[in-house]
Amino acid sequence: MAKANKLFHLLLRFLAFGSTLCAAIVMATSHEKATVLNISFEAKYSNTPSFKFFFIGNAIGCIYSLLVLFIRSSGHSFGRVILALDMIVTMLLTSCVSAALAIAYVGKKGNSHAGWLPICGQVTEFCDHVTGALIAGFIGVIIYLLLLLSHSINPLLVSKA
Amino acid sequence: MAKANKLFHLLLRFLAFGSTLCAAIVMATSHEKATVLNISFEAKYSNTPSFKFFFIGNAIGCIYSLLVLFIRSSGHSFGRVILALDMIVTMLLTSCVSAALAIAYVGKKGNSHAGWLPICGQVTEFCDHVTGALIAGFIGVIIYLLLLLSHSINPLLVSKA
């Protein structure tokens, strides 16, 4: 039972690593050149602070997941420290996905009250890329939530796993 | 020592209740009428989905904090359930504060690449209100992070407190 629990945790960590890596790469490669009314411009993630935050947050989440994978698979235990770091990384990922989603929503729908027009009609490929990154980032958040909830369901794992 | 821990937890819960209540009320009362180029308009929180999400998230956080305060002060214990709910509420608060902050940043600075102009020059009072709500919301997130970290430092509290 303890071995099955450990394997389940390692699988979740690996999935978290994969999804945060995907999210960071897909966001970092999202750019598109477009011409509107003879004015040429380039849409890229680094033009928007929230998208940069998304990339940095997911890159940190990815490196952290990889480090914990190595630590856990080598048999070492830093139970409470890892639980505390899990909480902080989950909040970081939640924060950067939410901020990016809020901006992506304005990019898609605009905000007529503030006079902000939607831009996805002009840069559809860029918007599709960002949507893909957001989906991967969201999956990462769900996996980290599952990891945290598994700690709360079985707190003994904290000191054993 | 156990009594001091319990009092510290109750104090944190009370502060979390106060900050989420303030955040929800200050956001809900943020509106301003302005006239630009003879066009009259009203800025209010309900015009922006992220600000509505901020209000709803903090209202849920506020009600939850109050409920846990009653449960804990009446001597009942639902240790693991409350730890799991604490994690979910912390993520909800982190998410709604981040989303609102991302939009408030565009309102303050604009985004020249997307053609979104800043609006805080026209509705300064509205922006000040939103800033106040964001600060209160951010304090709520920090308090919930402290509550979660105190669980991870002393996991025995989960089943005792």
UniProtKB/TrEMBL annotation, chains A, B:
A Gene Ontology term for the protein's cellular component: plasma membrane
Subcellular location: Cell membrane
One Pfam family hit: CASP_dom
Record carries keyword Membrane: yes
Signal peptide: 1-24
Domain Casparian strip membrane protein intervals: 4-142
Segments traversing the membrane: 53-71, 83-106, 130-150
Membrane protein topology class: Multi-pass membrane protein
Record-linked InterPro entries: CASP/CASPL (IPR006459), CASP_dom (IPR006702), CASPL (IPR044173)
Entry annotated with the keyword Ribonucleoprotein: no
Major location category of this protein: membrane
Entry keywords, A to Z: Cell membrane, Membrane, Signal, Transmembrane, Transmembrane helix
Family under the similarity heading: Belongs to the Casparian strip membrane proteins (CASP) family.
The protein's assembly and partners: Homodimer and heterodimers.
UniProt-recorded name of the protein: CASP-like protein
Species this chain originates from: Papaver somniferum (Opium poppy)
Taxonomic lineage of the native organism: Eukaryota, Viridiplantae, Streptophyta, Embryophyta, Tracheophyta
